[in-house]
Amino acid sequence: MNSPLTNLNVTLPVIAAPMAGGPTTPAMVIAASGAGSLGLLAAGYKAPDAVQSEIAAVRAASVPFGVNVFAPNPVPIDEQTYRRYADAVQREADRFDVRLPAGPVDDDDAFRAKIELLLSDPVPVVSFTFGLPGDDVVRALQKAGTTVVQTVTTVDEAKAAAAAGVDMLAVQASVAGGHSGTFTPDRLPAPVPLAELVAQVIAAADLPVMAAGGLASADDVAGVLHAGAAAAAVGTVLLRAQESGASATHRAALTDPSFTETVITRAFTGRPARGLRNRFIDEFEARAPLGYPAIHHLTSPLRKAAAAAGEPELVHLWAGTGYRQAQEKPTAAILSELVAAV
Fold first, then answer.
1. What is the reported pLDDT for 340?
2. Integer Cα distance of 186 and 271 in angstroms
3. Cα 242 to chain center, whole Å?
4. Given 83, 241, 321, 338, which is the most exposed site by the fewest CB atoms within 10 A?
5. 246 belongs to a structural domain
6. Quick one: which of 89, 45, 107, 102 has its CA closest to 305?
């Protein structure tokens, strides 16, 4: 099966996955692509003009690259449920003299504006997560010369993406760090080993795939490539890379022996995501409602203040299960070492 990555002169079958919220930087994308890999900018949580600036910075390096976009898939929340949770979280925010939003803040992460930007200033690859964009969006991007990649977490999602006409699938396992790309955040799919999920998706959707989730060693990468993936996508192992924009608090937590496991939580954003288990999760998970992006906007000021103050117990420490293997090295070196067993 021919992979679109071949047409982009990608020779290293390990992709730098997009990590929204700061970790993925233009420097990381340039370093990955310059090493023969492919890096994807993370458009999530950024204003369109900020995305445009990052695209310009990477384009100036004359390397292939992509942009990841959050496709709208809101999880509504009622005012009363929101306020109960907001009152509880506000007590933590009071320590930093931070005022949290009193009512739910909902938006679509400027989806239409970002699509308009990517149509007026096309990039080689656009990937989507959280939801499936309309067929019209897929076709318009392809007409502009862009390869469209869709994140999926199940065979059924893969079939839906194939029916929408996408060019490639990013198959994400439950062990992945950060947000799950599931289309149904209220019903997480049953955990399936990544290599097995890759084989199932390829058989059902007949599209090239990149595999993501828990890939932290050369053997991990070799396993998914042998299962049929055209490439592996890694994020967590790049969090401590020299080009990473992850906060000092996040970086330090990845090597801190007091953090011993990752868990899936909705306490920080109202949508399931995997991160290092900390006090905030222990205290708030049981009462945290689903509600995205309202809960994300609620806790964001607290998380930023805690990260700046060096208090990891109140920060969303997104990480996959292989977080202990994240190293402080150049991005290019990390990616190159991951293909040693291929």
1. 82
2. 8
3. 19
4. 83
5. no
6. 89
